[in-house]
């Protein structure tokens, strides 16, 4: 990004001003045309109602400002030879970005059926917000986009994610003043404290204040300039203001502002990279104030529109039915003088294209917005280097995430030169036992440091900020521009990004249908400090429902894994870190956990996704009387403890133990690529035997996944049912009826003939639960038979 400075480039010549204004007017014309026109794109005949779309959809209010930014970014990219990416924050600014990518030719290169001529212009107009066409917001279909503009708040964190480890990239980020009111955007301003001027690119925020949301004024637009400047300086920026409604004056001011900001960015990067300066940079931010709906109708039906909230969407709504509106629309469109901007064949004139960069430097053609073109396979060492030895099931204990931390540290080390892997999380890397990564890379930090601090590093690749929104946005931007990463989070609090992951899943689903978008590295979650071992933090920290949220989404995109021990976690991590175009959720504990499977067996079990643990059951090759199923580390331990109790008390009972790692295996294969056929499912769980399923999360999820199976009527699920508090670890499972004693009672209740024959056994189990309640209230710890339990078949 550090290029030769251009101290004299802030003064536009009359010729430059003329061509920049031509480009801007052309973009405005195309943006308005997309909202209104079905035909007659060049206005070669008087406008008639049949030329107008039957449903007028789109957002005009933000479009002129976005067109101004795109036009002026073109100028500096070409003049300075920059590699640049722009994140378009204002939600439904699609008309502008589509218009500009069509003008520069990148749209027609991506979609040859929309050529850069009159025929292509007609298709560009017709397809916008039209059945079978493209959305009104900046979406995966839009060349040059990494940001789904349908939901507000994420543009700035995406921009910083794109800039991390991209030292030669300028990431401009247009932030709408409505979006600036969201919590995720407000926190993302703090990303300045994490951006390394040596190894990272630069982010240039452009805060576009046009004054209004859909129906209300915006907060930042109504602040006095002094107060707004104080806010932005407090975030670590130096504001540069551009404002006005006279196009010539705004063009000149915008050119000066951009050149000045880019000179300051280049100077800061040069100081850090060549002179070793380590002081935190105060990065520039442009505050752009232009009227909402600028250059559109000044008033409609006697009320003001331009510069008010009425310009937000469609300024002239009754064009087909109201001759005056139709006349006003034609006057508006002709005010851009399209005959000067496009030739008789509809192609943009040389003046319009004078500022457009060439090739991959065009914003719609940059490979950084199609990260799958840049992504490289992640080097992952052989898992045997990290696997824990397992001579017999349950003979040893390890903390699964600590074992995973060693693998992640190796990945960090092996990507040190290429810097394309990051670990993000909200202040929990060490808490989640992943601190081995600090032996290789510290935590990114550009702010003040004190002697007591640990692992802070100007050039670190671990990102910690106590904002799940910002972590998510950083990682999404990083992945979308061709890199790899992992998001580690407490299970209960990952819900904070429910809506963000929803948008990313939609992005991936749509991208899969676009052959020109290359697959990117998957978004990988490691959820730990989970519901069953948050006994010390209490009810507020106990929520396993993120899995439910994700499994509601597009089956071709989502995957959920619950590895039961350290070696299965290694196998799952190896798989998800190598995968493409998925959202992978991995739930694993950080507390000491029994080791059940040696590495080879763990690989095989994870490849199956669900399987019988013959060593744990008592079928002896025959047909089981009951199936004990489990998913998750604590449920697995409780099922094995229940199986051990059944061996002791009901040795004649044939028990099958089934462990599920991949939750989507429970779905029918017609509904999910990983799903089992009915034949496979019945072979595992039987058609007619009772299945007692101990599940990590909310029990009704298992019923939902398996409701179409022939044996569903025999399925009985135990899981978390919102009974939590500060208590002992075992009391958590007792409170939710997931404990070993309750599971044995379920077996007695549900296996035909056992109710009478094993009544004494059931009573012993109930008595054990009673002893448990009395013991923990007296001693504050779990029963010795629980705390000292080991697997012994």
C-alpha termini separation: 64 Å
Strand order of the largest sheet: 12-9-13-14-16-15
Biggest beta-sheet profile: 6 strands, parallel
Number of helices: 26
Question: How would you describe the shape?
Answer: elongated
Low-confidence stretches: 1-9
Which structural class best describes the helix and strand composition? alpha/beta
Percent of residues in helices: 25-40%
Mean pLDDT over the residues? 95
Radius of gyration: 30 Å
Query: How many strands in all?
Result: 22
Strand content: 5-15%
Domain Xylulose 5-phosphate/Fructose 6-phosphate phosphoketolase N-terminal: 12-373
Pfam families: XFP (PF03894), XFP_C (PF09363), XFP_N (PF09364)
Family: Belongs to the XFP family.
Enzyme class: lyase
Structural write-up:
With 793 residues, the protein is an alpha/beta fold. 37% of the residues lie in helices and 13% in strands. It has 26 helices and 22 strands. It has a six-stranded parallel sheet with strand order 12-9-13-14-16-15, with helices on both faces. Helix 2 (63-80) packs across helix 9 and helix 19 (633-649) crosses helix 23. Belongs to the XFP family. Residues 12-373 form the Xylulose 5-phosphate/Fructose 6-phosphate phosphoketolase N-terminal domain. This is Probable phosphoketolase.
What are the main properties of this structure?
Transketo_C/PFOR_II; 5-stranded parallel sheet; alpha/beta; lyase; single chain; thiamine pyrophosphate; Probable phosphoketolase; disordered N terminus; EC 4.1.2.-; 793 residues; 26 helices
């Amino acid at each position: 990004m550090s290029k030769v400075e251009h101290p004299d480039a802030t003064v536009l010549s009359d010729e430059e001003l003329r061509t920049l204004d031509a480009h801007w007017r052309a973009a405005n014309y195309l943006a308005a045309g997309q909202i209104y026109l079905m035909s007659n794109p060049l206005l070669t005949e008087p406008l008639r109602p049949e030329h107008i779309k039957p449903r007028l959809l789109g957002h005009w209010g933000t479009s002129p400002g976005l067109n101004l930014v795109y036009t002026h970014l073109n100028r500096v990219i070409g003049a300075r030879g920059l590699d640049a990416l722009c994140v378009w924050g204002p939600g439904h600014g699609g008309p502008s970005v589509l218009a500009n990518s069509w003008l520069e030719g990148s749209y027609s290169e991506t979609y040859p059926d929309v050529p850069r001529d009159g025929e292509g212009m007609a298709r560009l107009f017709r397809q916008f917000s039209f059945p079978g066409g493209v959305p009104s917001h900046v979406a995966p279909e839009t060349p040059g986009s990494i940001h789904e503009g349908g939901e507000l708040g994420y543009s700035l964190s995406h921009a910083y994610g794109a800039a991390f480890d991209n030292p030669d990239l300028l990431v401009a980020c247009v932030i709408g003043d409505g979006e600036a009111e969201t919590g995720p955007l407000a926190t993302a301003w703090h990303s300045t404290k994490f951006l390394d001027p040596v190894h990272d690119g630069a982010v240039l925020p452009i805060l576009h204040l046009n004054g209004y949301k859909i129906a209300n004024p915006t907060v930042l637009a109504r602040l006095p300039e002094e107060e707004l400047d104080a806010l932005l300086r407090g975030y670590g920026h130096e504001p540069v203001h551009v404002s006005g409604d006279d196009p010539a004056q705004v063009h000149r001011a915008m050119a000066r502002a951009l050149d000045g900001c880019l000179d300051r960015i280049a100077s800061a990067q040069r100081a850090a990279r060549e002179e070793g300066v380590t002081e935190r940079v105060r990065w520039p931010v442009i505050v752009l104030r232009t009227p909402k709906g600028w250059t559109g109708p000044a008033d409609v039906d006697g009320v003001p529109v331009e510069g008010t909230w009425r310009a937000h969407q469609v300024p002239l709504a009754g064009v087909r039915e109201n001759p005056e509106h139709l006349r006003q629309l034609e006057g508006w469109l002709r005010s851009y003088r399209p005959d000067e901007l496009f030739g008789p064949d509809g192609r943009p004139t040389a003046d319009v294209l004078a500022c457009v960069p060439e090739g991959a430097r065009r914003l719609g053609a940059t490979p950084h917005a199609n990260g799958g073109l840049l992504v490289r396979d992640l080097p992952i060492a052989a898992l045997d280097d990290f696997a824990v030895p397992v001579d017999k099931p349950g003979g040893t204990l390890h903390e699964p995430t600590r074992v995973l931390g060693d693998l992640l540290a190796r990945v960090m080390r092996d990507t040190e030169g290429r810097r394309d892997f990051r670990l993000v999380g909200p202040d929990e890397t060490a808490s989640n036992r992943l601190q081995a990564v600090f032996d290789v890379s510290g935590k990114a930090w550009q702010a003040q440091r004190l002697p007591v601090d640990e692992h802070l590093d100007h050039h670190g690749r671990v990102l910690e900020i106590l904002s799940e929104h910002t972590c998510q946005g950083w990682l999404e931007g990083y992945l979308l521009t061709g890199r790899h990463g992992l998001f580690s989070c407490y299970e209960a609090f990952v819900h904070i990004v429910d809506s963000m992951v929803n948008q990313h899943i939609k992005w991936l689903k749509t991208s899969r249908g676009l052959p020109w978008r290359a697959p990117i590295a998957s978004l990988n979650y490691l959820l730990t400090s989970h519901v069953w071992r948050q006994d010390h933090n209490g009810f507020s920290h106990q929520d396993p429902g993120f899995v439910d949220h994700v499994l509601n989404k597009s089956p071709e995109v989502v995957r959920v894994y619950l590895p039961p021990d350290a070696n299965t976690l290694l196998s799952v991590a190896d798989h998800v870190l190598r995968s493409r175009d998925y959202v992978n959720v991995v739930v694993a504990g950080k507390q000491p956990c029994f080791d059940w499977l040696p590495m080879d067996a763990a690989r095989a079990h994870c490849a199956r996704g669900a399987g019988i643990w013959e060593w744990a059951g008592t079928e002896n090759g025959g047909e089981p009387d009951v199936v004990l199923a489990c998913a998750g580390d604590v449920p697995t331990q409780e099922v094995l403890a229940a199986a051990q109790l059944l061996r002791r008390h009901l040795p004649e009972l044939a028990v099958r133990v089934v462990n599920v790692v991949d939750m989507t295996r429970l779905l029918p294969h017609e509904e999910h690529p990983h799903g089992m056929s009915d034949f496979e499912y019945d072979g595992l769980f039987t058609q007619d035997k009772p299945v007692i399923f101990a599940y990590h999360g909310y029990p009704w999820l298992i019923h939902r996944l398996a409701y179409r199976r022939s044996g569903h009527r025999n399925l009985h699920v135990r899981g978390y049912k919102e009974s939590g508090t500060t208590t002992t670890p075992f009391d958590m499972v007792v409170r939710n009826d997931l404990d070993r004693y309750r599971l044995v009672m379920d077996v007695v209740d549900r296996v035909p003939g056992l109710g009478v024959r094993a009544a004494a056994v059931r009573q012993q189990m109930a008595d054990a639960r009673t002893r448990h309640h009395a013991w923990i209230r007296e001693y504050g710890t779990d029963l010795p038979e629980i705390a000292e339990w080991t697997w012994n078949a």
